[in-house]
Amino acid sequence: MFETVLEMLSYPFMVRAVVVGGLVSLCAALLGVSLVLKRYSMIGDGLSHVGFGALAIATAMNLAPLSVSIPVVVTAAFLLLRISESSKIKGDAAIALISIGSLSLGVTVISMSVGVNTDVYNFMFGSILAMSDDDVFLSVVLSVVVLTLFILFYNKIFAITFDETFARAGGIRVGLYNMLIALLTAITIVLGMRMMGALLISGLIIFPPLTSMRLFKKFKTVTISAAVIAIVGFLTGVCVSFLLNTPIGSSVIIVNIIAFILFSLLALIRNAVRK
Q: Which of 12, 21, 43, 102 is spaced 20 to 30 A from 94 at the CA atom?
């Protein structure tokens, strides 16, 4: 097994995948705990569709994909938050409205373009070969920024996750920190899309927190456990992808599904023993 890992890391594109994927998985898991508890976990799916539309347009216009998609997805995240909070269009309906519209725009642009079919496949399902050196550098820098901001404002994020009314009464600017979560989520989604694909990136946000919650109940414990599950799940998925020559995105998600099932079984056993 150790020799297999060494062989895998002898390829530069695999090293890029491990570094960027590990950081993105960690960011997604940390943010996912708050999003899942706030019943807003599907924002990842919606923003990934927005990212797909932006990437399709950038590719058709021969522009740098990340440079175009990051500001577009961040803007969509703020718009989604504003629509959900201040209008009659709430939660899942707002996500569906923006995500389907963006996906339709991306498909339309693709149908009118020539020679981008391979890139589109990579955007939809992910590819470890899609990461250039510039993408890796930008991804590492932005991932570190996301992690730093999450740690700095951990207490505020904890407060607004469980009770926005109480947090607001305590002087916390709830709207500002909701926007911060939306911003960090948008950046994480865009960074992960190139590797995981638009159809699967939201799995990095949803599965680790849900898996952790099978056994743990405290916010801090769930957060730490979700981070560990995300990193171990990603690294295991990368190894499976390398050994079986399967898409990295689907391999990582399948590993996360297995982890969810195992944690659920452990929770059932624990509950049965306590009775």
A: 21
Concatenating the DSSP letter of every residue in the chain gives: -HHHHHHHHTSHHHHHHHHHHHHHHHHHHHHHHHHHHTT-TTHHHHHHHHHHHHHHHHHHTT--HHHHHHHHHHHHHHHHHHHHHHSS--HHHHHHHHHHHHHHHHHHHHHTSSS-HHHHHHHHH--GGG--HHHHHHHHHHHHHHHHHHHHTHHHHHHHHH-HHHHHHTT--HHHHHHHHHHHHHHHHHHHHHHH-TTTTHHHHHHHHHHHHTT--SHHHHHHHHHHHHHHHHHHHHHHHHHHT--HHHHHHHHHHHHHHHHHHHHHHHHHHH-
Whole-number Å distance between alpha carbons of 26 and 23: 5
* Burial (CB count <10 Å: 0-12, 13-18, 19+), residue 38: middle
Q: What's the number of CA atoms in the CB half-sphere (13 Å) around residue 6?
A: 3
| C-alpha–C-alpha distance, residues 191 and 30, integer Å | 15
Q: What is the reported pTM?
A: 0.86
User: What pLDDT digit, counting tens, does each position of 75-102 carry?
Assistant: 888 887 776 665 556 666 777 777 788 8
The string of pLDDT tens digits covering residues 9-26 is 788 878 888 888 889 999
Return the amino acid letter for 124: M
Tell which residue, 101, 106, 115, has the closest CA to residue 52.
106
Smallest CA-to-CA distance from 48 within 182, 147, 192 is with 192
What is the C-alpha separation between 67 and 65, in angstroms, rounded? 6
Q: Give the separation between CA 229 and CA 256, rounded to whole angstroms.
A: 8
